[in-house]
Amino acid sequence: MNHSRRSFMLSSLGIAAATAGGAAHGNPLQGGNKGALPLSLAAGARMKLGTVTYNLAKDWDIATIIKNCEEAKFEGVELRTTHAHKVEVNLTKTQRADVRKRFADSKVELMGLGSAFDYHTPDQAKLRKDIEATKEYIVMAQDVGATGVKVRPNALPKDVPVEKTLEQIGRSLREVGEFAAQHGQQIRVEVHGTGTSSLAHIKTMIDVANHKQVGVCWNSNATDLDGEGFDHNFDLVKGKIFTVHMRDLYLEDYPFRRLFQKLNESGYKGYCLAEVPDSKDPLRVMKYYRATWLAYQNLL
């Protein structure tokens, strides 16, 4: 890459400003992630690309996940519960250590575990069960070398005041966040569910939780454009985005270019994770996906 092209990339992405003012996030021009982009892209590509195992990789074992991610230059993976890789809480200590080693010996980071636990239910027994199950998952995440667990709200129950539900979710997130802090993990709250996918409601949950280990898993929903619009909704939580889930990037009903611009402007350096349908030609899909993700950021 010639000097003028590299300078343009740095300028367009605001790297100099981020380097000067983003000490809390680390210097994007220093260090070396084992799954880093090629040198020609590394200076400009502050964010990292990965995949969730729902649905594209739902039938892959760990060896296949690593192989395909390495070939497609995906840097990380979030393993979702119930899928073929079988990374579940019933693993023994030896099995957990093996999972950790297999990712550590690869170019792919096991960046998180994707659970289906939620805390909106008015059934207090079920709520307690989900909180305790989340704690088990947090311990496993530490054991296998991940850095966080994805959880979610899933609905606003009928006949329960919205404020009461949001308060309950927030208090639950604080409890699991405090536990996660003891195990070096993040709690990543997916923007999910009917009613609960409102960014205003997500902000309320995060504010009630009020814990540094509790943040947002941006989910690229159509509801991100509701109300006062995309920029307003993004800004409600921009300082608390820990991970990003993305649908197919060709979809014209969602402003993916603007999302990447806003993420870069906010200093985000975490993972953008593809959450796309299964395919008979997954590697081809993954390679096209990466190319589109880079092109949308003017990195190609």
Gyration radius, in Å = 19 Å
Number of strands: 8
How is the main sheet built?
A: 8 strands, parallel, barrel
Mean pLDDT level: 88
Low-confidence stretches: 1-43
Superfamily (CATH H level) name = Divalent-metal-dependent TIM barrel enzymes
Q: Quote the distance from N terminus to C terminus.
A: 11 Å
Structural class: alpha/beta
Count of helical segments? 11
Strand order of the largest sheet: 1-2-3-4-5-6-7-8
The CATH architecture assignment turns out to be Alpha-Beta Barrel
Order of helical and strand elements: HHHEHEHEHEHEHEHEHEH
The helix fraction, in percent, is 40-55%
Number of domains: 1
CATH fold node name: TIM Barrel
Q: Could you describe the 3D structure shown?
A:
There is one protein chain. The protein has one domain (47-295): TIM Barrel (Alpha-Beta Barrel). 43% of the residues lie in helices and 13% in strands. It is built from 11 helices and 8 strands. It is globular and about 50 Å long. Residues 1-43 have low confidence and may be disordered.
